[in-house]
Design a protein that fits this description.
Blueprint (H helix, E strand, L loop, with lengths): L2 H17 L11 E7 L5 E7 L5 H10 L1 H11 L7 E6 H5 L1
Parallel strand pairs: 2-3
Antiparallel strand pairs: 1-2
InterPro entries: KH_dom-like_a/b, RbfA, RbfA_dom_sf
Main location: cytoplasm
Subunit structure: Monomer. Binds 30S ribosomal subunits, but not 50S ribosomal subunits or 70S ribosomes.
């Protein structure tokens, strides 16, 4: 499968999974702006944004839920190995 296809599938799965998190630090609407994969597919950088959210708190909550989110990706995206998820603020990527 092409990296672009995998990235779009991971984006879709994470968008759904994040909206289902029951963590007060995660606002109702979190947008997964982009997912970039390393060439060996071992790491997926997930760029997220949310209006009015406390980004450090949101990123900490997503890191805390990483195991759950990686399991969602593993179940729904057909890959030999599930990449490690690394969450970043989409604003950091604009610099």
């Amino acid at each position: 499968m092409k990296p672009e296809q995998v990235q779009s599938q991971i984006t879709r799965v994470l968008s759904e999974a994040i909206s289902g998190l029951r963590d007060p630090r995660v606002p109702l609407i979190v947008t997964v702006e982009r997912v970039t994969l390393t060439p060996d597919f071992s790491l997926a950088r997930v760029y997220v944004s949310s209006l009015g959210a406390d980004m450090p708190d949101l990123l900490e909550a997503l890191d805390h839920a990483r195991g759950h989110l990686q399991r969602q990706v593993a179940q729904q995206v057909r890959m030999r190995r599930t990449p490690t998820l690394e969450f970043r603020s989409a604003a950091d990527n604009l610099l």
